[in-house]
Specification:
The protein is of the alpha+beta class. The protein has a single domain, classed as ph1033 like fold, CATH 3.10.590. The protein is built from 5 helices and 5 strands, in the order αβββαββααα. Strands 1, 2, 3, 4 and 5 form a 5-stranded antiparallel β-sheet that branches.
Length: 182
C-alpha cells in the first residue's frame, strides 16, 4: 500500500492528518515506469482508450484552485504510450505494470475487473507547473467546434467537454504535443 507520506513530491504538501492515508496513485508519472490505468470496458469516460496505441498521448486535466486565484482547469501531466496491457482479468505475472495502482489493488483484493494499464515512455511526466486551460485553449484543442452557452460558465462548459477521454487529431494534437513533449 502506498501512503501520502511515501510520495516525497506530494507528502510535504499534505496536511499532517492525511500523511498516513492510502492513495490510489494513478496516473503514476513519478515512478521509474510511468503508468496509467482505467476500466475501458465499464467506465464511460475511458471507453475510447480501448483504441489507444503506442505513441498516442494521454493528457491529464485537473480543476485546481488556490487562495489567491479563482478555480480553473489546468493541464498537469501527460503519458506518451509505450505499451498497453488490455482487459486484465487475471494476474498477468510480473512486468512493467507491477507498480500500477490497479494491479496493486487487484493483487490485494483478488478482483480483476477487466481494467487496462498503459505504460508511458520516458517522456511521460507531471509538468513542473500546471498549464492553464481556458476557453481559448479549448477552442484550439477542439478546432473551434465547441458551443459556449451564455447560461453556462467557462468551467462548466470545459468540464462537460472534457469529462470523457477524447481522441484529438490535427492541429489540436500538435498543440498538445508541443506542450507535453517539449
Amino acid at each position: 500500500m502506498v501512503r501520502v507520506d511515501d510520495l516525497e513530491a506530494i507528502g510535504t504538501y499534505a496536511p499532517p492528518s492525511w500523511r498516513q492515508r492510502a492513495v490510489h496513485l494513478d496516473p503514476d508519472l513519478i515512478s521509474t515506469t510511468p503508468t496509467y490505468g482505467d476500466n475501458c470496458r465499464r467506465a464511460g469516460r475511458a471507453f475510447s482508450l480501448r483504441r489507444a496505441a503506442p505513441a498516442d498521448l494521454i493528457v491529464f486535466l485537473a480543476r485546481l484552485h488556490s487562495t489567491d486565484r479563482a478555480a480553473g482547469f489546468y493541464l498537469v501531466g501527460c503519458l506518451e504510450i509505450e505499451d498497453v496491457l488490455a482487459d486484465v482479468t487475471t494476474d498477468p505475472g510480473r512486468g512493467w505494470w507491477d507498480c500500477n495502482a490497479h494491479v496493486r489493488r487487484a493483487r490485494a483484493t483478488g478482483v480483476w475487473d477487466s481494467f487496462w494499464v498503459f505504460q508511458g515512455t520516458p517522456a511521460s511526466r507531471f509538468f513542473g507547473r500546471a498549464v492553464p486551460f481556458r476557453q481559448k485553449d479549448a477552442d484550439v484543442l477542439f478546432d473551434n467546434t465547441l458551443r459556449w452557452p451564455s447560461k453556462r460558465s467557462e468551467l462548466q462548459t470545459i468540464g462537460s467537454y472534457t469529462r470523457a477521454v477524447r481522441r484529438i487529431e490535427g492541429p489540436g494534437e500538435k498543440w498538445l504535443r508541443a506542450i507535453c513533449l517539449s
